[in-house]
């Protein structure tokens, strides 16, 4: 019967029969193919992460997403099968690479600037534009980092400023009052903030006393004549808790004093130095754990380590350069003591970085806890991220360029 002589109903029935035969044939082919497919392990599924602002389109990828994970931040993860047709089958199946490219082929599929390599195992692995753990940790080592300031709370701002300027020779660099949040900051040090480590004093309206706790140790200040500085402190009514003399087991002359709030300062006798405010000492419960964390997450170097078994303590000096020219972090482990009371006086150290987002990833990968996700501060748009180390000590990382703009 000629097709053009069929009635409309006959034509419709014939089309239905043709479509049915096509579907049956494709179904048989699909089942035959499926029987040859191995069950994929979770590792054989590809997960590619893209920033929301540069998500590749599905049409440009020529791949079919079969799962989407949103981490609630800036990234969305897509799992891709190796072909659109595979999406018709079960998610646990993967087609070996040889089905597509031959046993010896290595095919690079390019999508929106990302390169995905199909290996002989059948897995699709991102090889560029994807942040890997090793990439992040290697980046930390080359990041331009510097200790910017140390933050702590005081009960009488004017009294503390007077003590630091008259007894310790610091300069008041700047002061800012935030009445809507009922606090005032004062920045003091021995040189400009863009090149020196400084103290950031915080006065909260109406609070005149803080608990320093047992975890915070002291700040270190390098002076040319310890005895002379101690005499000045005494003359101004300051408190001296250790008279000048050589450190136990060494030759360096030191002394200890306290500021009006009870924060301890170690005076170390040294020649002229570009960084007189040279040290922050904190106590930790596991020294090796702390050293590894600050090396891996913060990119600090272990400058020296000293064990003093007679007095049952060990110290590790960490920093971004020689301790006679840079501020350093001195970690102290008292043998057998794993926990300390941190009080509510000492707050944190601020460190400069070129990228707060990568910094946060490195901290997470190194076992630290992010307490403030990376991003700009309201009002001033300075990008920061905050974290806790394994002992619970807080640090804040500040974008280098934003910090310089803030100083302007």
If you had to describe this structure to a student in words, what would you say it looks like?
This protein has 408 residues and is of the alpha+beta class. 23% of the residues lie in helices and 36% in strands. It contains 9 helices and 22 strands. Strands 8-9-10-7-19-22-21-20 form an 8-stranded mixed beta sheet. A hairpin with a 5-residue loop joins strand 21 (383-388) and strand 22. Helix 4 packs across helix 8. The longest helix is centred in the first third of the chain and has 28 residues, at 8-35. It is elongated, with a radius of gyration of 32 Å. Residues 1-5 and 33-130 have low confidence and may be disordered.
Question: Low-confidence segments, ≥5 residues, pLDDT <50?
Answer: 1-5, 33-130
Helical fraction equals 10-25%
Question: Can you list the strand order of the major beta sheet?
Answer: 8-9-10-7-19-22-21-20
**Coarse shape:** elongated
Q: Which percent band covers the strand fraction? A: 35-45%
Name the quaternary structure.
single chain
| Rg from alpha-carbon coordinates | 32 Å
**Number of helical runs?**
9
Cα(first) to Cα(last) distance is 90 Å
- Overall mean pLDDT score? 78
Question: Which structural category do the helix and sheet elements fall into?
Answer: alpha+beta
Main sheet specs:
8 strands, mixed
Secondary structure tally: strands = 22
Secondary structure elements and pairings:
Layout: H1 8-35, E1 46-51, H2 58-61, E2 65-70, E3 75-80, H3 98-101, E4 107-111, E5 114-118, E6 124-126, H4 133-142, E7 146-153, H5 157-167, E8 171-178, E9 183-189, E10 198-204, E11 216-223, H6 226-235, E12 239-246, E13 253-258, E14 264-269, E15 277-283, H7 287-296, E16 301-308, E17 313-319, E18 328-334, E19 346-353, H8 356-365, E20 369-376, E21 383-388, E22 394-399, H9 400-407
Helix pairs in contact: 4-8
């Amino acid at each position: 019967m000629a097709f053009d002589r069929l009635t409309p109903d006959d034509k419709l029935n014939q089309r239905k029969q043709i479509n049915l035969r096509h579907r049956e044939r494709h179904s048989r082919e699909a089942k035959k193919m499926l029987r040859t497919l191995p069950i994929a392990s979770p590792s054989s599924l590809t997960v590619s992460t893209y920033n929301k602002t540069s998500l590749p389109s599905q049409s440009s990828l020529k791949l079919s997403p079969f799962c989407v994970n949103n981490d609630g931040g800036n990234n969305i993860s897509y799992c891709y099968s190796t072909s659109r047709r595979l999406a018709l089958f079960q998610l646990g199946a993967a087609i070996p690479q040889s089905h597509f490219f031959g046993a010896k082929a290595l095919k690079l599929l390019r999508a929106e600037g990302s390169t995905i390599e199909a290996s002989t195992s059948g897995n699709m692995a991102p090889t560029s534009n994807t942040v890997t753990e090793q990439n992040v940790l290697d980046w930390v080592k080359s990041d331009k980092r510097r200790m910017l300031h140390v933050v702590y709370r005081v009960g009488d701002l004017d009294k503390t400023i007077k003590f630091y300027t008259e007894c310790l020779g610091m300069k008041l660099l700047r002061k800012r009052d935030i009445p809507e949040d009922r606090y005032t900051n004062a920045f003091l040090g021995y040189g400009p903030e863009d090149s020196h480590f400084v103290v950031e004093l915080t006065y909260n309206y109406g609070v005149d006393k803080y608990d320093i706790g047992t975890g915070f140790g002291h700040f270190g200040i390098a002076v040319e004549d310890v005895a002379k500085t101690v005499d000045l402190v005494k003359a101004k009514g300051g408190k001296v808790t250790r008279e000048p003399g050589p450190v136990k087991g060494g030759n360096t002359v030191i002394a200890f004093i306290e500021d009006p709030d009870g924060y301890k300062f170690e005076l170390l006798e040294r020649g002229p130095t570009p960084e007189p405010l040279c040290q922050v000492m904190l106590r930790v419960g596991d020294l090796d754990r702390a050293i590894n964390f600050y090396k891996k997450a913060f990119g600090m170097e272990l400058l020296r380590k000293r064990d003093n078994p007679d007095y049952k303590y060990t110290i590790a000096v960490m920093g971004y350069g020689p301790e006679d020219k840079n501020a350093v972090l001195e970690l102290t482990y008292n043998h057998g003591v794993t926990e300390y009371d941190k009080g509510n006086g000492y707050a944190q150290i601020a460190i400069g970085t070129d990228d707060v987002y990568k910094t946060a990833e490195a901290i997470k990968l190194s076992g630290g806890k992010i307490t403030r996700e990376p991003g700009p501060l309201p009002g001033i748009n300075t990008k920061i991220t905050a974290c806790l180390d394994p002992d619970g000590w807080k640090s804040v990382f500040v974008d280098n360029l934003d910090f310089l703009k803030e100083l302007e």
